[in-house]
Every structure is written in C-alpha cells, then in structure tokens.
Amino acid sequence: MFDFMNIMNKVKEAQAKIKEKQAELVHLTAEGESGAGMVKVVVNGHRKIVDIAIDDSLITPEDKDMLKDLIVAATNKAFESIDIKIKEEMKQATEGMMPNIPGMDLGNMF
Questions:
Q1: What is the spatial distance between Cα 29 and Cα 31, in angstroms, rounded to a whole number?
Q2: 38 in Cβ contact with 69 (< 8 Å)
Q3: pLDDT one-digit tens code per residue, 14-41
Q4: Greatest CA separation found in the chain?
Q5: CA 16 – CA 93 distance, rounded (Å)
Q6: How far is CA 49 from CA 10, 55, 72, 96, 107, in A?
Q7: Are 50 and 44 within 8 A, CB to CB?
Q8: Are 39 and 52 in contact (CB under 8 A)?
Q9: Spelled out in words, what is the top-level CATH class assigned to the domain 21-97?
Q10: Under a CB-based contact definition with an 8 Å cutoff, are residues 70 and 35 in contact?
Q11: Which residue, of 14, 42, 61, 102, is most buried by count of CB atoms within 10 Å of its CB?
C-alpha cells in the first residue's frame, strides 16, 4: 500500500521545486531563426521575446510582408525550442521526487 503522508510530503516538495525552477526559467533562453539566419528571435523561459535581430537588407518597404512572415516563423521556432527546454528543466527538477504511479504522467504538466 501507499504511505499517504509520504506521498503528500513528496507532492509538497515537488511543488516547491517546481515553483523555484519556474522563477529560474527567466534565465533560460532559446533562439529561432528564419530566412537562412536573416531573422533571429530570442525568447526566455517565461515565453517572452527578449531580442529580435533583423538583417539590414530586409529593412525595405517592398520587403515588409516577407519580413513579417520571417519574424513570425523565427518566433514560432524559438517558442518550440524553449518549450522543449522548459519541459526538460522541469523534469530534472522533479526527477525522483514523485512515486511511479501507473497512468500518472506528470511530464505533461509543464
């Protein structure tokens, strides 16, 4: 049988670790690029854009629509990358803390 108090203590410990790790995610960054590197977007672990770099050759009125598309593509790639990093960080933070309960996948919580 399960030791309910032990499980509850593990849950509280995991919650504290998760909260601590979430605060640290602001320092985690990921970059996405498009247009063969002509547009680069950097996001942090709080899913905020922290930097955008655009090659000067793209800054012309006639390239406005293409530039918008490249920024969107680079941003989406950066968010996909940071989501993977966040999940890995959170998994490491809680690894070994929770009992292995069949059917209970905590990996999707993040």
A1: 7
A2: no
A3: 888 888 888 889 899 999 999 999 999 9
A4: 69
A5: 10
A6: 34, 18, 12, 32, 25
A7: yes
A8: yes
A9: alpha beta
A10: yes
A11: 42
pLDDT band for position 110 (50/70/90)? Answer: very low
CA distance 67 to 88: 32
First-residue to last-residue Cα distance in the chain: 28
Residue carrying the six token digits 């670790």: 17
Q: What is the pTM of this model?
A: 0.74
**CA distances (Å), 3 to each of 8, 15, 23, 84, in order?**
9, 18, 31, 33
pLDDT digit string (tens) for 54-103?
A: 999 999 999 999 999 999 999 999 999 999 999 998 888 777 765 555 55
Q: Which pLDDT score, from 0 to 100, does residue 94 have?
A: 75
pLDDT of residue 93: 79
The residue type of 61 is P
Which tokens go with 88? 């890995």
